[in-house]
């Protein structure tokens, strides 16, 4: 029994050694693939019609390169430095999500006090009385049931007819 286990252990250690050699070879191959000669990267450029256009050599690049225009600075160096000093060390604080809040609003001259605003709302609801006060006249009977994220449900009495 001991001899059997010993031979199995020897076989297993041989396999582990072979795997280590394969890993080392793979790592070497990956290093060689990543090495790129950037100076000789591209010597010609092929145009759309198939003709080959040679690229410029280093000496020609300097001669034929367009001269940069000197642009006047918009802001003086001192003002930029002062602005940068003002901003240093003062990161903006992250504001909390206000969630639902109440505001006063006016639509077509009708004052709406305590309007509920919800920044995450995807459904717009208003009371039927308010819709009539705002001058909406065409309503249709709804065939829907509205279910909100908090699992509360509502069946609207009427819906505005969008024309």
TrEMBL record:
Segments of skewed composition (Basic and acidic residues): 66-75
Region named Disordered: 53-75
Top-level taxon of origin: Eukaryota
Protein's recorded name: Aspartic peptidase DDI1-type domain-containing protein
